[in-house]
Design brief:
This protein is of the alpha+beta class and 223 residues long. It is 61% helix and 17% strand. The protein is built from 7 helices and 8 strands. The strands form 2 sheets. A 5-stranded mixed barrel has the order 1-2-3-6-5. It has a two-stranded antiparallel sheet with strand order 4-8. It is flat, with a radius of gyration of 25 Å. It starts with a helix and ends with a strand.
């Protein structure tokens, strides 16, 4: 097994060397490949001198999100094993309940899942309704540009970074980050810095507030 593993690594290295030698003998292929990659970035609004900064920022955002997710998973596992120790010393609900009460206990997960689905649907409906309403957003001190989601509570607009005026719920940072990415990343936004703390801001995409969406889905609280 170990020999197969080592053999696979050696073959992979040989393929990499052959590919490198092939490209070195044909520099015009490398030029065409680089031109295609730069062209793709340019078509998406990223000029060549901004490519390295863009890739660096995306990598840092990915690493930060992985760190948050790992910390949350570790916390949840710790809480889970702590709860198991506590429950081990107590009789289960089905052992002490009467037959009718047992049915109610078994029914609870189903009802909770239905409730969660309803909250999800109505949450989206509320978000779109709010987006459709006309909101008066003051232009004074506003920063406008393409919004980039950096983390669950941090965004970039143009060259400026802002923290959202939110407190992410425990264990929800990963979900909050993914929702912000899907809903707002790459869209034109307007951020209004906080007068007392310019590093924080309320950001809007159209008429939809970025922080408000997190509130609607129960992922954060207002500071």
């Amino acid at each position: 097994m170990f020999a197969k593993y080592v053999g696979g690594i050696i073959e992979l290295m040989k393929d990499a060397i052959r590919l490198t030698a092939f490209l070195l003998k044909r520099p015009h292929y490398v030029a065409v490949l680089l031109g295609g990659i730069i062209g793709i970035f340019y078509l998406n609004g990223i000029s060549p001198h901004e490519i390295s900064g863009f890739l660096s920022e995306k990598w840092l955002a990915f690493v930060e999100n992985r760190k948050q997710t790992f910390q949350e998973d570790y916390q949840q596992l710790s809480e889970h094993f702590s709860d198991k120790k506590t429950l081990a010393s107590k009789p289960s609900a089905t052992e002490v309940f009467e037959p009718e009460e047992k049915k109610a206990v078994l029914k609870m997960p189903y009802e909770q899942s239905i409730q969660q689905m309803q909250e999800e649907v109505f949450g989206w409906q509320q978000a779109f309704q709010n987006a459709g309403k006309k909101m008066e957003i003051p232009d004074e001190n506003a920063v406008q540009g393409v919004l980039t989601v950096v983390s669950a509570n941090k965004v970039r607009v143009g060259e400026k970074y802002f923290l959202l005026n939110v407190r992410i719920h425990s264990g929800k940072a990963g979900e909050a980050y993914q929702r912000l990415k899907r809903q707002f990343d790459g869209r034109n936004a307007k951020c209004i810095p906080d007068n007392g703390n310019p590093e924080k801001a309320e950001c809007f995409v159209g008429g939809l507030g970025v922080s408000e969406m997190l509130f609607d889905f129960g992922l954060a609280d207002s500071l």
